[in-house]
Each structure stands twice: as C-alpha cells, then as structure tokens.
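Exodeoxyribonuclease III, Marilutibacter maris. Tokens?
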Amino acid sequence: MKIASWNVNSLNVRLPHLQQWLSQAAPDIVALQETKLEDSRFPDEVLAADGWRSVFAGQKTYNGVAILARGAIDDVQIGIPGFEDEQKRVIAATVAAPGTSDPVRIVNLYVVNGQDVGTDKYDYKLRWLDAVHGWLAAEIQRHPRLVVLGDFNIAPDDRDVHDPELWNDGHILTSTAERDALRRLCALGLHDGYRLHHEEGGVFSWWDYRQAGFRRDRGLRIDLTLVSDALREACSGAGIDREPRTWERPSDHAPAWVQLG
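Tokens:
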C-alpha cells in the first residue's frame, strides 16, 4: 500500500498535475494540503471518475485539506477536537487497505507556517502543535495502525535544509521550539518513514519559487510521512517524487510517499 502526501498549492490550478501524478505514481491513499477551494468547488466528481473516493475540508483562497483513497473512507474527523480554529488544516479518516481487512487511520496535517519566530503567528503555531499532540496521544491508542502525514512546515534536522547556517534556531521552520514540538509528536510512537530508509541529507520536498530555488536545489524537507509503531516493520520504502516540481506551473512542493508492505 502506497500512501502519499502532496501540498498542491491550489487544486484549481494543479488538478491536471494531480491527475497525471496519480496515474503515473499509482498511490492507494493521498493526503492533499492547500487545496484552496471551498467544499462546493472540490472536484470530487472528476476524481471519482478516475476511481478515487474523497473527503475534504476547504475554504476560499487559503488552506484546505483532503484525503483521496481507492478503498472505503470512514470515521472522518475535521479539525483538532477541542481546539477552536476556523482554518481548515486537519482531516482524519479510517481507510480500508486495498486487498486486506486491516484499515489504516490517516491523519492529514497542514501545519501552521508561523511567519517569523516571536510573532503572534509563531505562538499560534506552537499552540496548534501542542493541541495536535494532545489529540494524537489519544488517537494512537484508538488506532494503532496510524499514519500522520502532510506539510509539517518543520524541517526535522540539519540534513533536511540546504544551508544549516541560514536555517537556524532563529529562523521559522527550523527553530528549536518547532523541532522540539515535532520530536514530541514522534515520541508518541511515530517514526519518520523517510528516515527509516534514508540517512543522507540534501533531499528536499519544498523549494521557494523565488531566486531559482528549485534549479539551485535550495530546498527543505518539510513534507513528512510518519508511521506508528504498529506499522514500522511494514514500512518497506519511502521517498520524494521530484518530477512534478519540474512541470509547467508546478506546486512549490513535491509529493512525499511511504510504502507499507
């Protein structure tokens, strides 16, 4: 079973890219972020014609998350329970694993960017991550077969940035508090699927549109696929697909994926 995450940075613009990639990469489950569409405009009928079931939570212009699957999707949760937030950044669902009777719980996160260290938006990011931690602590008990994935807006360590001197403790996405929050999530019993198979640095999932970021490979690995203890042994591969970042009018993110079984 191949499970992927992709910040498409506007599904309205990137739908042809998504359809092309789904056909080429053949994942079984996909978590999307930054769909930037109200629910009434989500292309669920178009995707259904291609064999995909979908659940989604969106808003105009900003944010928006969705889960696509080949199998049945049940027990959908939108937002962080008990955390009031108008921004559509979280969707979770239980998805039937193709060809098996063992469902997988999928939690799709579009983590807050945080703007700059020390700002109100940065404080909001840390509070948001703390709320996610409290929720996932209970979720992993209810659903041991858990995959938490999405655009985390945090580079886990210096291997995941093109320039550690620039991306340091004073910089958003790499500050100590943000990385500590990510470590706390992993301490619940979650494992970075990519790092289970790759130790090298310099492999990224996001490149700034500005200053020829992709051409110069000045990127960050901030799109993560975390698997629970119960799925760790089944995690047989993981990677980042750079090809869609080379297409015309691409998202600034590339799909990240993990293979189970």
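The mean pLDDT is 97.
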